[in-house]
Design goal:
By secondary structure, the chain is mainly α. The protein contains 10 helices and 2 strands, in the order αααββααααααα. Strands 1-2 form a two-stranded antiparallel sheet. The longest helix is centred in the last third of the chain and has 27 residues. It starts with 18 loop residues before the first helix and ends with a helix.
Length: about 250
């Protein structure tokens, strides 16, 4: 078996670790520490062989492992190679959503816990958004308003999600969207196919219009208060739908 210098965390371990996994661990640590920057080319096969004493097949398996974690991207051609991935909120958020969805499907998290996270994140975010929003954000919020009396379908769910996404973006902190968006997308996906309680969409529409008004006015305290009440309304409906789903 090919040998590779083990990281400190593996020294003294009785567990046998494949060479490709150890190599991938070293490269992953360099990426996450910032030693290898986003967009930077990884060392080539010759360099990795010289440093770690491994062969081509081990290197390729290590790179495949890093690619599966979305840490690197590989391109072909004369200027090709393996490069550290440039992170984006949307891309990372999608993978986080997968994990949250699996936890919800396995019922290791409850509706109350999911809504608790939304309250912790979206209430203060609404207040910050009232201070930091731009005219473009207001236009996007207005564009996400829908007629609750129309026939509901995918477009309604999309507009509902977009309203919350824009508010998070208006706070100008990408971590808010990264952490929060997967949670409300899981909630929407989990209950989007179920019959919403009577008056659900009318309530959503009224809450959104109220939030738009106070955010446009720059009223941070009112924005937080209305977002808290809006999430309370959503939580009540989601809990009702969850009881129907499991009954």
């Amino acid at each position: 078996m090919e040998k590779v210098a083990e990281p400190a965390s593996l020294k003294g371990s009785a567990k046998s670790v494949p060479a490709y996994a150890v190599l991938a661990g070293h490269l992953r640590a360099r990426i996450l520490s910032g030693e290898l920057q986003p967009g930077e080319r990884l060392p080539g096969e010759a360099e990795l062989t010289a440093e770690f004493g491994v062969g081509r097949s081990t290197i390729r398996e290590a790179l495949r492992s890093l690619a599966s974690q979305n840490l690197i991207e590989t391109t072909r051609g004369v200027t090709g190679g393996s490069f550290v991935a440039v992170p984006s909120v949307g891309h990372i958020s999608e993978h986080l959503e997968t994990g949250v969805a699996l936890m919800a499907a396995a019922e290791t998290v409850t509706v109350d816990q999911l809504m608790e996270v939304r309250n912790l994140m979206e209430v203060p975010a609404a207040g910050i958004a009232a201070f930091r929003r731009t005219d473009e954000h207001l236009e996007q919020l207005n564009a996400s308003i829908f007629d609750p009396n129309d026939v509901q379908g995918p477009e309604t769910f999309t507009k509902n999600q977009e309203f919350h996404l824009v508010l998070l973006r208006a706070a100008h902190n990408p971590l808010l969207e990264l952490i929060t968006a997967p949670v409300f997308r899981v909630l929407s996906g989990r209950f989007g196919r179920d019959h919403a309680p009577e008056g659900f969409w009318q309530c959503v529409d009224s809450d959104h219009r109220g939030l738009l008004d106070v955010v446009a006015a720059g009223d941070s305290m009112a924005a937080m208060d209305l977002m808290r009440k809006h999430l309370d309304h959503l939580g009540d409906s989601y809990r009702q739908m969850d009881r129907l789903r499991t009954s």
